Integral membrane protein
Amino acid sequence: MTTWWPWGRLAASLLGFAAIIAQLILTLTIAIGSTTAWGGHLPTVVVNFFSFFTVLSNLAAAVVLAVAAVWAWTTGRDATREPRWLAVTLACVATYMITTGIVYNLLLRGIELPQGSTVPWSNEVLHVIIPLFLLADVLFAPKRRMLGWPALATIAAFPIVWAVYTLVRANLITSPGTGDAYWYPYPFLNPHLTPGGYLGVAGYIVGIAVAIIAVGAGVVWWSRRRAQARASR
C-alpha cells in the first residue's frame, strides 16, 4: 500500500483538476453566449465559480493530494509518518470533501438545474468520487500521523471565513443567471428562497457547521485510534 497509495492520490488529484476545468469551461461558454449584460460579465462569472464551497474544497483537495504524492516519493520515502503540516492539511480537505459529499447528496442532488448548465461526469467526480477517495484516505492511507484535538480549530477556520464571505458578498453581486440584485452559491443560503429568511439560513449554517465539526472530529479521532493501534502492536 505504501508503494501504490501515492499513485492513487495523484490520480485523484488529476481527476479533480480535470473535473473543475471541464465545469469552468462550460460555465465560461455559457457566459460568453449570454445575451444579457449581467450574464456575460466574465469577471463576476469567474469569481462566482470559485466561490462555491465545492469548487474551493475540490481545488484544495487536488493540490494537497498532489503535494502528498510528491512528498511520498521524495522526502517521505524513508519517513515513518507524514509531517504535521501535511497531516493537518489532509485532515482539512478530507473534512471539507466528506461534508461536501454528505450535504450535496442530502440537500442538493434533487434540485433541478438549467439544462446543460453542468457537466454530468464532473458533477459526480466533485460530489461523490473525490469525497469517497478522501474518506478512504483517512481510513487506510499509510504513514498517517496522529492529530491533536486542537487541529479541529484549524479545520473549522476556512468554512467560517467562507460563510462570512458568501453572506457579505451576496448582496453586492448581480446574479449572472437571473439578473437578481443578489447571488448565493446554494439555495439554502438564499434568504429569498429559504423558509424563514435569514433565520432559516442561520439554521442551515448551524446544521452544516455541526456536520463539519462532527466530520472533523471523526477524522481526528480516527487518526488517534490508528496511532494507538500501531503502538499496541
